[in-house]
Amino acid sequence: MKHPALKASCVASFFLTALLTCLFPSCKTIRPDAGELPVTAFVDPFIGTDFHGHTFPGACLPFGMVQLSPDTRTMGWDGCSGYHASDSTILGFSHTHLSGTGIGDYGDVLFLPYSGEAQLEPGEEDRPDSGYRSRFDKTSETAKPGFYAVHLTDDDIAVELTATQRAGFHRYVFGKAGRSGVLVDLVHTIHGGGQPLHEIVVINDREIQGLKYSSGWARNQYVYFTAQFSKPFEISIFQNDSLVAQGPPSPDPKIPGTQTPGTETPDSETPGALVRGTRLKALLEFDTEPGEVLLVKVGLSATGYDGSRNNLASEIPGWDFEAVKMQAQRTWENQLNRV
Hints:
- Helix content is 12%, strand content 33%.
- By secondary structure, the chain is mainly beta.
């Protein structure tokens, strides 16, 4: 977050693809208003996700602060972007990534929808049932500039992702009836590093805020977030996988663990339960019917909670996923047409 040049990483592979295409004699200007395919139709975000390419296929905008993408691994040289095409399970969908780098970092604020019994640990790649990671259908993966989709087969959940400059938009379609939820894992980090400090603030039964501080390769990263849900939830917050807070918001904050030095305190005018410490995770649970849709909006800021909420309010004021997706594709179209 302290290195603005890194924000350009998600745009690099897209521009490279377009540039190489236009070096060939058969290349011509693509004009959507002339009834021809848009430039974005020729971009494949999966390029570079195999071998040692170190790219990610998720949703982002040119020079955007948010890179909302699936994570399939967090360690090893081929895990620098959090995703590798050879993997068969998805850990979840985090909001910051590096693309094309030779070292990993970020993977901040992981969200994973689930159905049935929740698990708190990611488990092992060769034993997916040992944790919350999910197998996924490779043929269901779709990636376009500003958009990503996949089907999580273990719990029968369709996931779609899009993004604005400073916010991510999730759309989950649950295939099963019964108890379902969303895991929010602040421990999850690509390549790890440093001593993390976390906060989770329950604003009401549709909104939470949080902070993930880490000191990996990019050093001293403060990622504040505001997440809003289209459906009321019941929340349980865990520290070191032990339950420390549960139920509806409380006017008396519960603050176990280590204080976070030099960080903003949540808005005192907003009632809610606050948990501050290390290794925090949360389960936000509700009942679902087959085919039920859940929308989740997540705004980020490097400066504070107010910034994350303002970014979300200004960039995704409503709940129209398709409108945000189309705007992301128009933004990419305009940018790529400069090539």
